[in-house]
Design a protein that fits this description.
four-stranded mixed β-sheet; 50% helix; Glutathione S-transferase Yfyf (Class Pi), Chain A, domain 2; globular; homodimer
């Protein structure tokens, strides 16, 4: 494990939520730096020097800066292998990555804060249209994941087997977002809800929730 | 290497383009199935059985279905390790994944066909607004990648070192899209253009281009 480990995070960020889950599962406690996205702290010159992509989260480990939550989680899994967040075997790894990317590529970026701001400011979208936008893309993505998970014997208590993996670290924040930000009915996704229930029995998932962060306002 | 290997692809898909590059670099020749996205072939019941997420590409290997281009590329790298598309070492792997995800999460999904169709059909966006949308998100993402790559000694002839990795397999299709679909001026991104030039000296990248596919129309 590296001597220095620091995380740039924002309590509301779904991608930071994923990394917090991974850190908690592994019992890692990096130095925390809070970047207030809604106050545009990510556009400061100081943060641009930390992460030129100006996205949150960023991990700094042994003076290397790593952006992108999935790259961070796989890195953490390499430097602190226990408990593993990736399964053994190429096919199993591919399945976990597929589920994680199903959230991280196909749902989250489209319903993200910066996209909503563009729709509002540049295209004149009203509150109702913004809500409908988010619900549409989240609904499409969750329906696909439900079908993927419900019909596969590799699904266990969690997305892959009976212990949490990177897939759960992505799914749980997305479900949180769907419930608490855009007030969606998640009953069409019983497999996802069952996995969420299992996840919140673990303190690592509870402690990672936005409202449990020091920078929550 | 698995006995059976099949790819569901579409010539215009940027994500399929990434996988074609990886397959070509490794000299793998899967059975090809063509899914015509603009004719909505991905919404057929037959394709939904192959990939419930109804996205392209999908790899089928030894009867396991793998969706998501990055999961597919990492899988190919595991089953056919030469030449490697991921570097050795946790930090180097993290950097390659960060660049790849900078394209796959932060640029491509937002400027994707299904999002453009929604903007047009549900929000009444005109052609000019759709072009501006794409140029905005592609420009933001490429500017960030330029800064990330230009200022890092780990960048070589390619995104990471002097041989192509998963990062290049993501970057090159995105540059193709920016040039040929939305006619962007890429001169603000000299490092990316230099890498593109190096890439197209390799037949693997040229053969993967949309216009060189059997299903191109």
């Amino acid at each position: 494990m590296p001597a220095d480990l620091a995380l740039y995070t924002y309590f509301r960020s779904s991608a930071a939520f994923r990394v917090r889950i991974a850190l908690n599962l592994k019992g890692l406690k990096p130095e925390m730096h809070f970047v207030h996205l809604r106050k545009n702290a990510h556009h400061s010159d100081a943060y641009k020097r930390v992460n030129p992509l100006r996205l949150v989260p960023t991990l700094v480990s042994d003076s290397q800066t790593i952006g992108q939550s999935l790259a961070i989680i796989e890195y953490l899994d390499a430097i602190a292998p226990q408990p593993p967040l990736m399964p053994e075997g190429a096919k199993a790894k591919a399945r976990v990555r597929e589920i994680a990317l199903g959230v991280a590529c196909d749902i989250h970026p489209i319903a993200n804060l910066r996209v909503l701001q563009y729709l509002k400011n540049k295209m004149g979208a009203g509150e109702e249209a913004l809500l409908e936008w988010q619900r549409h893309w989240i609904g499409e993505g969750l329906a696909a994941l439900e079908q993927l998970l419900a019909n596969d014997p590799a699904t266990g208590k969690f997305c892959h087997g009976d212990t949490p993996t990177m897939a759960d670290a992505c799914l749980i924040p997305q479900l949180y977002n769907a419930k608490h930000r855009v007030d969606m009915d998640l009953s069409p996704y019983p497999t996802l809800l069952r996995i969420e229930e299992a996840a919140y029995k673990l303190p690592a998932f509870v402690a990672a929730r936005p409202e449990n962060q020091p920078d929550a306002d």
